[in-house]
């Protein structure tokens, strides 16, 4: 078995088309899709906008599943098609099913994610950490052997993810970050759902500043 690696696929697409609060054609977003594996196996983290790009990045590797960090449209809108093309399964925390249904209606994910569950790919464990706040079912995937955490929209370079919706909670996302992410080794690389990566060491000193500003 070859050495495990992390690939990043940046996808772009429109979300919110025809929905209240959005322009008629929607808003364009750029997302990170992360693929963990080696030359033989791959796990996909988030399935955003472009199923064909995701499938191409997996290539001829055995696709072990599509793991979703949360149910927002821009993270799940390519999940059903990518899973069909790859002949694999989709995993989502059940607390975000109400958001998933906005994109996919009655077509459900295959399996539920649970806090503490783990996935093995290329000899590396990815542990599921439930980190509510951005959404009720937000999770992060921690890979100690790779020195990384895939943080979805929970933690970015510069602070927590957005909590502007009625189902979100700034207090909860900060608690999730404080107890589940900032407790990881300081050198841990944080790979978010949008934008550049950061580290636990870079973000931890700013916790009090986030609390002071309230976002």
UniProtKB/TrEMBL annotation:
Give all residue intervals belonging to the Metallo-beta-lactamase domain: 30-194
Q: State the superkingdom.
A: Bacteria
One family name in Pfam for this protein = Lactamase_B
Protein name stated in the entry: MBL fold metallo-hydrolase
UniProt organism field? Leucobacter muris
